[in-house]
Amino acid sequence: MGQKLKRSARLLWSFLHAVTGYAGGFLLVFMALAICFEVVMRYFFGRSTLWVTDASGYILVWATFLVAAWVLKGRGHVRIDTFVNRLNPRAGRLVAILGFLLAAVASGIFVYQTGLDTYMTWQRGIPIGYPLTLPRFSVYLVMPLGIFFLMVQFLVEAWREAQGIKSEQAEIK
Questions:
Q1: CB 3.0–4.6 Å: which of 2, 55, 69, 119 could bond 149 by disulfide?
Q2: pLDDT tens digit string along 59-103?
Q3: Is 142:66 a contact under the CB 8 Å cutoff?
Q4: Could you write out the DSSP letters of every residue in 37-65?
Q5: Is residue 168 in a domain?
Q6: Where are the alpha helices (H) located in 47-141, listed in sequence order?
Q7: Distances from the Cα of 149 to the Cα of 68, 110, 138, 145, 170, angstroms
């Protein structure tokens, strides 16, 4: 693969991370504002909205799956590395590579299954009920998409580990 193509792929991947990261952040801010609106409506006006609770749940699903790969890129997921830290560096890298590859395989299985479920709900036109009547696939759609990005990021992390490239993890001080 040529250097120009590698650079373009890296730029595209970074762009996708930025888009999904900002979209997830925007959704979480919107959800927080909607919940504040619900609290104000209930406390000051004695009336509640019908949509905030359901919309918050859907937004939480979308935000979680949108940012999963972005969080992995920064090594922000919770890791229990007590065992790995006791290994010599070479064995630790091998364990990390194996872990990333196993996670990529598991993610691939999840992409397949959630993709089937999403397609089935779209094909059958299954709605989500009251108070927000939405097609169920509109909530499910983010799952195969987000897990696919996560799977690719697991493969990227395995490759980076194999190449000895330092992760993009932020240093904790």
A1: 69
A2: 999 999 999 999 888 877 777 777 778 888 888 889 889 999 999
A3: yes
A4: HHHHHHHHHS---SSHHHHHHHHHHHHHH
A5: no
A6: 52-73, 82-85, 89-124, 136-140
A7: 8, 12, 18, 6, 20
Asked if the peptide bond before residue 131 counts as cis, ω within 30 degrees of 0, the response is yes
Q: Is residue 36 part of a domain?
A: yes
Domain count, the chain: 1
In this prediction, residues 114-120 reach a mean pLDDT of: 95
Query: Which structural domain range is residue 41 located in?
Result: 3-163
SS3 36: helix
* Backbone CA torsion sign across 64, 69, 72, 76: negative
Nearest Cα to Cα of residue 12 among 163, 152, 165: 152
Tokens of 109: 């299985």
In a domain, 171, yes or no: no
pTM attached to this predicted model:
0.83
Residues in the chain: 173
Residue 84 within any structural domain of the chain: yes
Joined tokens for residue 124: 């059958």
Q: Residue 135, SS3?
A: strand
Distance of alpha carbon 49 from alpha carbon 2, whole angstroms = 55
